[in-house]
Design goal:
Layout lengths: L1 H10 L11 H7 L9 H9 L5 E4 L3 H7 L6 E2 L5 H4 L11 E4 L5
Parallel strand pairs: 1-2, 1-3
Length: 103
């Protein structure tokens, strides 16, 4: 699909188009790269009480206090280092961060 999308972009006149043809699984294997998960997957994991920590990176007031994903802990990005004590001791525990979106 990525190649087809790239060709469509080129037809629109874009000239600096790149395709990562190895796909998402290969992307995740590269040290330093991280992945995104979809909301249905997160809900599925929460419903089965998967061993993970969900972190709301938005400001506590007013965002987190107005509503957040059940079980999520509030560690605003601006206070991450000073609140990192809230993270699990086991460094292999999956951490899922969310905020207001990519923008």
């Amino acid at each position: 699909m990525s190649h087809k999308s790239a060709w469509k972009a080129e037809k629109l006149g874009y000239s600096n188009v790149k395709v990562f043809s190895d796909g998402y699984p290969a992307w995740l294997k590269v040290p330093g790269n991280y992945g995104c998960i979809a909301t249905p997957y997160l809900k599925q994991q929460l419903d089965k009480s998967a061993d993970m920590v969900v972190i709301d990176s938005r400001p506590k007031r007013p965002k987190y206090d107005k509503g957040h994903i059940p079980t999520a802990i509030s560690i605003p990005n601006s206070k991450f280092m000073e609140m990192s004590y809230l993270l699990p001791d086991d460094k292999k525990t999956p951490l899922v961060f969310y905020c207001g979106g990519f923008t």
